[in-house]
Design goal:
Largest sheet: 5 strands, antiparallel
CATH topology: L-fuculose-1-phosphate Aldolase
Number of strands: 5
Helix content: 25-40%
CATH class: Alpha Beta
Structural class: alpha+beta
Number of helices: 4
Order of helices and strands: HEEEHHEEH
Low-confidence stretches: 18-26
CATH superfamily: Class II aldolase/adducin N-terminal domain
Shape: globular
Strand order of the largest sheet: 1-2-3-5-4
Strand content: 15-25%
Distance between the termini: 40 Å
Radius of gyration: 14 Å
């Protein structure tokens, strides 16, 4: 199976969940030898958060285990995502499946954060 077919297989059905890849965004495999996969995502809640210019605190256990902690606008060691101002975010993984999981967890966390934010500060897991 070539990379294009692999990407299609991994992303099948995500359009229904509000993600954009290929059509969905860009998928890039780094050439620095690390075999790290990067997904530039433009899903609704992550895009909305990126337009506010706010960092996303680590508010769910899934964020902690999959992403590694708070998501900011800079690359931080151990964190598998970063926000991109007015554009969404970039998620990383060792393979496509990990990168897609990171996207899903980030979108859900952004949705939860934007839902609870009007009621006060979201409590961080760490």
């Amino acid at each position: 199976m070539d990379m294009k077919d692999k990407i299609k297989e991994v992303y099948e059905g995500l359009e229904k969940e509000g993600y954009v890849i290929g059509d969905l965004g860009s998928v890039t495999v780094s050439s620095d030898g690390s075999a790290k996969v990067m997904i530039n995502m433009h899903s609704p809640y992550v895009l909305a958060l990126s337009c506010l210019g706010e960092d996303l605190p680590c508010i769910t256990n899934q964020m902690l285990s999959v992403i590694g902690g708070k998501v900011t606008y800079t690359e931080e060691s151990g964190i598998n995502a970063k926000l991109v101002a007015n554009d969404g975010a970039v998620c990383y993984g060792k393979n496509l499946e990990e990168a897609v999981l990171c996207c899903k967890v980030l979108e859900r966390a952004a949705m939860v954060y934007l839902t609870v934010a009007p009621f006060g500060d979201a409590k961080e897991v760490i």
